[in-house]
Amino acid sequence: MSAHITCQDVLDALYELIDCEECDRRSGLIDAGSVPGPDARARALMIQHVATCPHCTDALDAERHVRALMRGCYESEQASPALRARIVASISSVSVTWR
Predict the structure, then answer these.
(1) Which residues contact 79 (CB under 8 A, 6 or more apart)?
(2) Which pTM was predicted?
(3) Is the pLDDT of residue 77 over 80?
(4) Per-residue DSSP letter, 83
(5) Residue 93: what are its φ and ψ, rounded to 5°?
(6) CA-CA distances (angstroms) from residue 35 to 1, 50, 70?
(7) In the predicted model, is pLDDT for residue 42 greater than 60?
(8) Up-side HSE of residue 75: CA atoms within 13 Å toward CB?
(9) What number is the average pLDDT over the span 3-7?
(10) What is the per-residue pLDDT for 54?
């Protein structure tokens, strides 16, 4: 990834960027090349871009807000072991292409 980050770069990687904020394990897996996504340098460049771009700041804040609302709605709910296994299996089978 070049040192010049565009709004489209941030929007294309928005979910992965937030996943990395919320889960150090995911960041480590990406940085090790085990799973696709923006590496530490790309994440730092994107965060720098977001800090100076109102459009990307709004997009990132909106996604953070939605995730916080979802966690708040379901934090007291526990998935059954069978459902949890299906979710984990589907999450592990999803692949994201990083451009």
Answers:
(1) 87
(2) 0.59
(3) no
(4) H
(5) -95, -5
(6) 17, 24, 25
(7) yes
(8) 6
(9) 83
(10) 92
Q: Which residues contact 46 (CB under 8 A, 6 or more apart)?
A: 5, 9, 10, 13, 17, 38
**What per-residue confidence (pLDDT) applies to 15?**
77
Structure token digits, residue 20: 């990395």
Q: What's the farthest any 2 CA atoms get from each other in the chain?
A: 45
Cα–Cα distances in angstroms (integers) from residue 54 to residues 8, 36, 49, 71, in the given order:
13, 27, 10, 26
DSSP notation for 45-74: HHHHHHHH-HHHHHHHHHHHHHHHHHHHHH
Distance, in Å, from the CA atom of 7 to the CA atom of 53, rounded to the nearest integer, reads 8
Question: Cα–Cα distance between 39 and 34 in angstroms, integer?
Answer: 11
Q: What is the mean pLDDT of residues 43-52?
A: 88
Contact 27, 20 (CB under 8 A): yes
From CA 87, how far away is CA 85, in angstroms rounded?
A: 5
CA 48 to each of CA 4, 28, 96, 97: distance values in angstroms, whole numbers, following the listed order:
10, 20, 23, 22
